[in-house]
Amino acid sequence: MSTEETSRFVRLRVELVIEVDDSDAVTRAALRRIADDTDLPTGERAQIENAVTEDTAEALAYLIDPFDLVSEVPGVELAQASWSSEEIDYDPDSPDWDLGDDDVHDEERDDEGVTLG
Question: What residue spans define the domains of the chain?
């Protein structure tokens, strides 16, 4: 495939399972970041503070920013991002948590069955 035929855009899918050992520390960090955000309107600030105080997953979603993940990668610019978080029941031994399983089904293959990208 020539350079003209390839897209400049790449969808990067990342799924993380995070174990929270200290939810109060996560909440405090989120509240500090909110307090430091001078561009945040007062009404929105109160809503976000309430959300991160009530839900550790919301606090994590506020702390983890996709822009931060790619901002120092040379030659790339974040075009669009969305993310969410939720508390889950996690069993690392369960076959339901095989993160690599989706990759097999989502791989793009050429006419000869060779995996692309």
Answer: 20-84
Q: In angstroms, rounded to a whole number, what is the distance separating the alpha carbons of residues 84 and 64?
A: 10
Q: What is the pTM of this model?
A: 0.67
Taking the C-alpha atoms of residue 28 and residue 34, their distance in angstroms, rounded to an integer, is 10
Taking only the tens place, the pLDDT of each residue in 27-65 is 999 999 999 999 999 889 999 999 999 999 999 999 998
DSSP 51-101: HHHH-HHHHHHHH--HHHHHTTSTT----------------TTSGGG-TTH
Q: Is 28 exposed, middle or buried (0-12, 13-18, 19+ CB in 10 A)?
A: middle
